[in-house]
Amino acid sequence: MQRAVPAWQQALLSVVLLALLLGAWELAAGRGGGTGAAVDPEYAALLGQAAAQGGQTPFPRPSEIAARLWELLRDPFYIRGANDQGIGVQLAHSLLRVAAGFGLAALVAIPLGFLIGMSPLLSGALNPFIQVLRPVSPLAWMPLALFTIKDSAISAIFVIFICSIWPMLLNTAFGVQSVRREWLNVARTLEAGTLKTAFRVILPAAAPTILTGARISIGIAWLVIVAAEMLVGGTGIGYWVWNQWNNLSLSDIVIAILLIGIVGLLLDRLLGAVARLVAWQD
After folding, report:
1. Is residue 179 part of a domain?
2. pLDDT (tens digit, 9 = 90+) per residue, 61-99?
3. Residues 100, 151: Cα–Cα separation, whole Å
4. Number of domains in the chain
5. DSSP label at 235?
């Protein structure tokens, strides 16, 4: 049996490991030339950046990234043009797209999952379609979405819808199918109707499983939106990352990676808190 480790010890070890990582990074970047690490001229020319910084592009140190992060966070919501918007604005665009696609997926997946879970006939009929479509990469739908919808922002929302629907649909169906038969028999004994049984018995019992599917979906949706925005451009954190790569702004790319991870963590924690609240009420 392993003894429980206090949370403060775990946090302290995390801080120590982070400090060691940042320290090693700072030293390695300094030995590599700091701001003077040269780039292969042919590579720079390929990117159209041969003249940028006199042919120099360093890999940034943590201290330089921190300074740049502070600069970005001092005014994160500025808008100076279509291609010059703050990091907060870009994150907001991405979050709005994820919320729209995820919300639409929930509106479709949860009721349909209920029907599949409650009807063996419907479950057997739809299962082949689900198993064929579920493994398809969400980005594979992007060309068709752009061709039919003809709007990059709505196409990105559609891709989020596609990638979000499957975990919620399958988890909802599984949660409904896993409701204890005894509870359903009691509902029949009390002559409860189908709708009343669904809302009073099945939904509370399946809610934790449904929220688990939603938690998986939101993580996938946040992951996919970055790639989708790199393809369609315009606005969003994915477009911002690609734009900074074109400018060889490595500090901004590292900052974007950090912010993407933090936002993904917060989204996961939010749905995790909702799931714990539902489990506690049950």
Report:
1. yes
2. 898 899 999 999 998 898 887 777 889 999 999 999 999
3. 15
4. 1
5. S
Identify the domain containing residue 230 by its residue range. 94-234
The per-residue DSSP string of 150-198 comes to --HHHHHHHHHHHHHHHHHHHHHHHHHHTS-HHHHHHHHHTT--HHHHI
In a domain, 23, yes or no: no
Distance CA 84, CA 99 (A): 24
Cβ neighbours of residue 115 closer than 8 Å, sequence gap 6 or more: 122
Q: Model-level pTM?
A: 0.82
45 is written with which tokens?
């020319």
Give the least confident one: 193-202, 228-237, 260-269.
193-202
In a domain, 116, yes or no: yes
Residue 52 confidence (pLDDT): 46
Question: Cα(176)–Cα(231) distance, rounded to whole angstroms?
Answer: 38
Rounded-to-integer distance, Cα 196 and Cα 181, Å = 16
Q: Please name the residues in contact with 209: beta carbons below 8 A apart, sequence gap of 6 or more.
A: 171, 172, 174, 175, 178
Judge whether 59 lies within some domain: no
Residue 203 identity: L
What CATH code is carried by the domain that includes residue 142? Answer: 1.10.3720.10
